[in-house]
Amino acid sequence: VSTITSTGLTDINTLYSSSGFSGLGNETIEITDELSVAEANTLDDLTTGSIVATIGNTRVSNLLGSASLSDANGNNAYTISISTEDAAVSASDLNAINAITSIAVNLANVNSITASDFTDLTTLNANRDEFSNITGIAAITLTDNGGGTGSVDYGTLETIIDEYQTNFNSSAVFSLQSGDTIVIDTDSELSAFLADLASGALVLTNQSVTIDSSSPLTVSQANDIDVLTEGTITASIDTDSTVDDLVNLTGTNAYTIVINSVDATVSTAAQLNTIDEATSVQVDASAITDISGNY
């Protein structure tokens, strides 16, 4: 016997406990009725063959709880649909559920996922063909700086945003945990960051943004970021910016600002004070040779 079929657990238990049969223990068991996690685990203990069945009431807490769904032999084919009650679920939980069945996990009821580590999202994307109905995932929230050491590396996040908008949902929106810090290291990362903000692929609230000095911001770019977050922007402002540009900086951030030599003799004290209010970093005014103003 290679396969045993039954409507439920009762007949299977009776068969395997019967003294009238021997040699059982490596068959495939196919169940037509829905099983609970406990029932499926009972079957998994009876055979080294695969269990083919639908798991009912598939709350994530049931599938991965203290008495989690088992796959002792790594060969079960459970049909699992994530419950509407778990419309928001973590990427790590989805990866763990995927590991206990060879059948694509149905995510039709899932509309948002969370992740505390980039690797969970990377794994989920790599195994996306092992899930069905993934296009309803519209929101992805990163926590704990994406598993980074104190900050979110935007080079890594940029890749993940592109992958999820390509492979899951082109309208998927990413957000970050309150107070996280995004670090941008290159011009290409900065371009992608600004594009993702403009398109709505990335939403900021109170995250801080640190941009390498090798990738300076224009005043317009700085203001575009400032209006989206209550966090601090740490960046250099393009040295081609004139005083007339710099006075338009919004918010108070940690900008490195160097007054351009073209403004050596045409800057007013009021303008310089306005620029100073826009940054917590001392303004380099060494190019100034003449200041006008009221005294």
Which terms would index this structure?
5-stranded parallel sheet, 295 residues, 18 strands, alpha/beta, 19% strand, single chain
Describe this structure in words.
30% of the residues lie in helices and 19% in strands. A five-stranded parallel beta sheet has the order 5-7-9-11-13. The chain has a five-stranded parallel beta sheet with strand order 10-12-14-15-16. Strands 1-2-3-4 form a four-stranded parallel beta sheet, with helices on one face. With 295 residues, the chain is of the alpha/beta class. The mean pLDDT is 94. It contains ten helices and 18 strands. The chain is rod-shaped.
- Proportion of residues in β-strands: 15-25%
Structural class: alpha/beta
How many separate helices?
10
- Shape by Cα distribution: rod-shaped
Separation of termini?
101 Å
SSE string: EHEHEHEEHEEHEEEHEEHEEHEHEEHE
Strand order of the main beta sheet, please? 5-7-9-11-13
Estimate percent helicity: 25-40%
The low-confidence parts are none
- Residue-averaged pLDDT, rounded? 94
